[in-house]
């Protein structure tokens, strides 16, 4: 520990492990520490199944109705990967995919007022066949999807009379005559925004997000999402291996005694009486209680089911987004289900997650619209966690803190935070192409 490092990273959550890999690839000397004995942080995978019962202080099942406990890998914060999204690009470019195997998720759905669940259409053909919209709205939406898939910021012929510099998204919806319900599922279930602020902002980022959804869907056909076999637990370890290839050092089960400062700038981290010196520290909010603020709370219900979701019985894995406006809320509700298909549960069993941002004094009751979709629940585990964010950018004191995971069941906001933290720490945008080139060079 008497060495000097470019960066010390605290916590082995996914964000921190990705950043460790990114910095190592960029030529930084990295030391990665965690007070826990395992990878994953708050988003760890639990196996055997008895560990899930222990974590929530529930009596372990005495019979064998859940099958072999070792056949279960229950993610505490399950999220799906967009097949053409930023995290998958990072996995591919960095070579981490060699350690992982993914399988597509069977369905991507949206909830509509009244309790119906609809597959999200992402092509002109799907739009015209969808029961989500009336016949005239279908045609308007089909034209909108065609515009999205043809839009090219460099080609004015694809602008459809819109100005990419001044037009806001609400004006685009108006131009194509899309009603409020259609705008709702487009913004929340395709562009994956967590509120409606985007409607009053420039339309180009939103169109790109919708195009990403459509492109991701075209890869597998059933949904735009994929999930790793055996759960998310392998993701942090994959990036840890990447960091190690480039000389990164990992230390688990290391108590963090002090963040050492000189003239209000970090100079090291003290553990077990020794201080490792560094130029910057990156870590999750739990390591910096006085440097973060609570911005929200997230309530999650992990549910064990012995059946698929009644309204979509054919799907053994899926995501359902319940847009805020459809249930009179300020925050969306997210439903995710995985199963033996992804080697995370015993055959005949399903793991469902329902999550949302807390708005009342009765968080569990806020999950009701999502829980009601699941049918009979065999076991339910409720957690309520503070969502924390750094008080400052970290550029003055060189302490760069990631945000807690939000309620979403996809990794897009997670990637936004990873790339923002990288930019704050290094002063430059991350170059995806450089990873692949550098990795090939390192292995030659």
UniProtKB/TrEMBL annotation:
Regions annotated as coiled coil: none
Subcellular location, record wording: Cytoplasm
GO molecular function: GTPase activator activity; Rab GDP-dissociation inhibitor activity
Keyword Kinase belongs to the record: no
Keyword Membrane: no
Biological process, per Gene Ontology: protein transport; small GTPase-mediated signal transduction; vesicle-mediated transport
One GO cellular component term: cytosol
Entries under InterPro entries matching the protein: FAD/NAD-bd_sf, GDP_dissociation_inhibitor, RabGDI
Top-level lineage group: Eukaryota
Protein keywords: Cytoplasm, GTPase activation
Function field: Regulates the GDP/GTP exchange reaction of most RAB proteins by inhibiting the dissociation of GDP from them, and the subsequent binding of GTP.
Stated family: Belongs to the Rab GDI family.
Full protein name: Rab GDP dissociation inhibitor
């Amino acid at each position: 520990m008497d060495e000097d490092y470019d960066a010390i990273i605290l916590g082995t959550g996914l964000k921190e492990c990705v950043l460790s890999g990114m910095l190592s690839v960029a030529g930084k000397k990295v030391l990665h520490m965690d007070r826990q004995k395992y990878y994953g942080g708050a988003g760890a995978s639990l196996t055997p199944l008895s560990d899930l019962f222990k974590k929530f202080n529930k009596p372990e099942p005495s019979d064998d109705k859940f099958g072999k406990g070792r056949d279960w890998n229950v993610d505490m914060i399950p999220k799906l990967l967009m097949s053409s999204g930023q995290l998958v690009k990072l996995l591919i470019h960095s070579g981490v995919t060699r350690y992982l195997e993914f399988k597509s998720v069977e369905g991507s759905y949206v909830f509509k007022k009244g309790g119906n669940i609809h597959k999200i259409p992402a092509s002109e053909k799907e739009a015209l066949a969808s029961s989500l919209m009336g016949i005239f709205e279908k045609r308007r939406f089909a034209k909108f999807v065609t515009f999205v898939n043809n839009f090219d910021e460099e080609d004015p012929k694809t602008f459809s009379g819109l100005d990419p510099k001044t037009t806001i998204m609400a004006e685009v919806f108006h131009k194509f005559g899309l009603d409020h319900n259609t705008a709702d599922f487009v913004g929340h279930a395709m562009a994956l925004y967590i509120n409606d602020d985007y409607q009053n902002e420039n339309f180009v980022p939103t169109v790109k997000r919708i195009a990403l959804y459509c492109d991701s869907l075209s890869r597998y056909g059933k949904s735009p999402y994929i999930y790793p076999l055996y759960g998310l637990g392998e993701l942090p370890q994959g990036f840890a291996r990447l960091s190690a290839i480039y000389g990164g050092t990992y230390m688990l089960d290391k108590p963090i005694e002090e963040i050492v400062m000189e003239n209000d700038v970090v100079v090291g981290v003290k553990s077990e009486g020794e201080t490792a010196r560094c130029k910057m520290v990156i870590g999750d909010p739990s390591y910096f209680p006085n440097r973060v603020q609570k911005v929200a709370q997230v309530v999650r219900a992990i549910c064990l089911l012995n059946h698929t979701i009644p309204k979509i019985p054919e799907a053994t894995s899926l995501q359902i987004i319940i847009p805020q406006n459809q249930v009179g809320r300020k925050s969306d509700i997210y439903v995710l289900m995985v199963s033996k298909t992804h080697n995370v549960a015993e055959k005949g069993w399903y793991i469902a997650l329902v999550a949302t941002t807390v708005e009342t004094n009765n968080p569990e009751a806020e999950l009701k619209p999502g829980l009601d979709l699941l049918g009979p629940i065999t076991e339910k585990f409720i957690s309520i966690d503070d969502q924390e964010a750094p008080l400052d950018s970290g550029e003055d004191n060189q302490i760069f803190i990631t945000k807690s995971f939000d309620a979403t069941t996809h990794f897009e906001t997670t990637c936004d935070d990873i790339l923002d933290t990288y930019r704050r720490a290094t002063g430059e945008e991350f170059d995806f192409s450089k990873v692949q080139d550098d990795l090939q060079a390192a292995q030659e």
